[in-house]
Specification:
Elements: H1 2-10, H2 17-27, H3 31-35, H4 39-55, H5 62-76, H6 83-96, E1 109-114, E2 119-123, H7 131-140, E3 148-151, H8 156-166, H9 178-187, H10 191-210, H11 220-229, H12 241-251, H13 256-275, H14 283-295, H15 299-311, H16 319-331, H17 335-347, H18 355-367, H19 371-383, H20 391-403, H21 408-420, H22 428-439, H23 444-456, H24 464-476, H25 480-489
Length: 492
């Protein structure tokens, strides 16, 4: 076999179609050929041989090409599908004016061409994430002379981005290109690209909006495009689930495992609309997004929808519906819903008061990692409620768990414990640290404490300007004590 391969590699133009079929048939059965890394050279020589056939006006008969299809496709199964290999396969198909039918999808070359005639080759497998491109291949390429898709609606940069994504390479999505990413994902039905883009953009928007910070203006165009693609118009008061259907048909993942992330992001978009991102305050639309995600068993969406019904925001107030969605969220493992139902039982909202049931839900929520529930269990131990007898030492443990999740009330409580030395060694520096953590989350009591530490030089250098700043922040967030202290501070 080796004796046949060397002459073929050196002079592929000397072989006939029949001889090429025989050689590739024997080569794909030869472990020696496969082991000795001759494959790349054989494949390159095969292209040169096919080019020589064209020059000599030699063509594969239909039956001959079917045999060649089988042997060559089997040979490729031992290769890695590189860009260069795909280009070689494409050139062989082009010069023979035939298509390989037995290739695995990794090796089926597809040419993507931009409006500016720039070309890139991807495999048929690479198109799997795109519903639209995948359908294009299956519907129009059966008898096509070349496997080419012309993408006229993309900019050259957008074309490059799409190719990069389809080839499975990581993407960097600058804020200025958010709109383009959403457009490409929607246009070609690429749910993975949509989710990947939102995973970069949405978390920062949610955090910034929670802090009351304005969203980056570079994201505005993309967010408005997303809003329109969802089927809504600004100021719409009659949003319906039907409005979202076309969007879901285009972008909802087919894989059930990927739907969770998709609906989590829809829920986050709903939250941004609730908060009035880019001056669009649309709780009605938010409710519809929550409902869509909730119907697909997204726990967070079920909880958010229940909350809207409880407080009558974006939907008519309806405690029965709120209860239904809280219960569904609990069934899907949502600790926030467990904590909310615990509060209902504790306060007698919708149900008769039941401290036992409330405690049970709080414990379940705490075990699920809910920071508010962790703090409340700490309160139970500190004050000896509902059979919790651990005292301040046990409370300290629960407060610490909640504080590590940045729950400001728990951070404040740790500050008090360290300042007073209750159950732990007194440590004013650590107390100041926890008061500061709470204050940075706009907790008025934390801000008041930080102001007092600066005013009197407790664990920090005395600083009147810092004290004044923190008193003013505490006043802004509703602290009457800070208002009185600020007046006394100024000697009024």
């Amino acid at each position: 076999m080796i004796q046949e391969i060397y002459p073929f590699i050196r002079h592929p133009e000397n072989i006939s179609p029949t001889q090429l079929i025989a050689l590739t048939t024997r080569a794909q059965k030869s472990s020696l050929i496969l082991r000795e890394s001759f494959l790349p050279q054989i494949i390159e020589a095969t292209l040169k041989a096919c080019e020589s056939f064209e020059k000599k006006s030699l063509r594969f008969e239909e039956k001959e090409f079917r045999k060649f299809d089988g042997s060559f496709s089997s040979l490729l199964e031992h290769c890695f599908p590189t860009d260069k290999l795909l280009r070689t396969i494409f050139e062989i198909e082009k010069v023979t004016k035939n298509h390989f039918r037995r290739l695995q999808s990794f090796f089926v070359p597809i040419v993507l061409e931009s409006a500016g005639k720039k070309q890139a080759i991807v495999s048929q497998f690479d198109l799997d994430p795109s519903k639209i491109l995948r359908q294009t291949v299956s519907s129009t390429f059966v008898e096509a002379s070349d496997h080419k898709i012309i993408l006229k609606t993309l900019s050259e940069e957008g074309f490059k981005t799409l190719v990069t994504f389809l080839r499975g390479r990581s993407l960097y999505v600058p804020y200025k290109r958010f709109a383009e990413m959403v457009h490409i994902a929607h246009l070609y039905g690429i749910s993975d690209l949509f989710v990947q883009t939102l995973s970069i953009i949405v978390p920062s928007l949610v955090i910034e909006s929670a802090k009351g910070k304005p969203a980056d203006p570079d994201l505005k165009e993309g967010f408005f495009l997303l809003y329109r693609l969802l089927g809504f118009e600004t100021g719409s008061k009659n949003a319906t689930l039907a409005s979202i259907d076309p969007f879901l048909q285009q972008l909802m993942p087919e894989d059930d495992d990927k739907k969770e992330d998709f609906f989590q992001f829809l829920t986050s978009i709903g939250k941004l609309l609730e908060r009035g991102i880019f001056d669009i305050c649309e709780p009605t639309v938010a409710a519809k997004l929550y409902e869509v995600a909730a119907l697909f068993d997204c726990p967070r969406a079920q909880y958010m929808l229940a909350s809207l019904y409880e407080f009558g925001k974006g939907v008519p107030k309806d405690l029965q519906k709120a209860h239904t969605w809280y219960e569904r969220a609990v069934d899907t493992g949502c600790p926030e819903a467990m904590c909310r139902l615990a509060h209902w039982y504790e306060e007698g909202i919708f149900f008769e008061k039941s401290s036992r049931t409330a405690a049970t839900y709080y414990i379940q929520a705490a075990c699920g990692g809910n920071a508010e529930a962790l703090y409340i269990i700490g309160q139970f131990h500190e004050h000896g409620k509902y059979g919790c007898r651990g005292g301040i030492k046990r409370a300290f443990e629960w407060y610490t768990l909640a504080a590590k999740q940045f729950y400001p009330k728990a951070q404040l409580q740790l500050g008090v414990i360290y300042e007073q030395g209750s159950g732990v060694q007194k440590d004013l520096e650590t107390a100041f640290k926890w008061y500061t953590e709470a204050a940075l989350q706009e907790n008025a009591e934390g801000e008041l404490k930080v102001a007092e530490f600066y005013r009197f030089g407790i664990a920090v250098l005395q600083d009147s300007n810092e004290a004044k700043k923190w008193y003013e922040r505490a006043v802004k967030h509703g602290s009457k004590e800070a208002l009185q202290a600020l007046a006394a501070f100024h000697g009024k």
